[in-house]
């Protein structure tokens, strides 16, 4: 059963992303102007105004568990009209990217999920 929250390998994130978005890679255009997309998608997750302690948890989770491994991720279902989550397996997780500090908080943390097959 899929949970209604973001997570990896059946574990829900303690701190849920503030925003997220699906991304499709445009490979080329056909001669009559139709787009050709890659077979796999990616999903970007963002956390706003994150404490350094929470950012450290992201880093430990990535480097200790998911670096270089395939994972199953729980994400909002692609193209579905309701905000419903779905498990996608065989995915890869990027290292968290950290933005600038503001008042002892990291303004944004971004992590990308790659190799998502529908």
Residue windows where pLDDT falls under 50 for at least 5 positions: none
**Assembly of the depicted chains:** single chain
How many structural domains in the coordinates?
Answer: 1
Enumerate how many helices there are, as a single number. Answer: 1
- Major β-sheet profile: 9 strands, antiparallel
The secondary-structure class comes to: mainly beta
Proportion of strand residues: over 45%
SSE order, one letter for each helix or strand = EEEEHEEEEE
Per the principal axes of the C-alpha atoms, what is the gross shape? globular
Mean pLDDT: 89
Helix content: 10-25%
Terminal-residue CA separation: 17 Å
Radius of gyration from CA coordinates = 16 Å
Describe it.
The protein has 118 residues and is mostly beta strands. The protein has one domain. It is 13% helix and 53% strand. The chain contains 1 helix and 9 strands, in the order ββββαβββββ. The chain has one helix at 52-66, and strands at 7-8, 11-12, 19-29, 35-50, 71-76, 85-93, 97-98, 101-102, 105-116. Strands 1, 2, 3, 4, 5, 6, 7, 8 and 9 form a 9-stranded antiparallel β-sheet that branches. A hairpin with an 8-residue loop joins strand 5 and strand 6 (85-93). The mean pLDDT is 89.
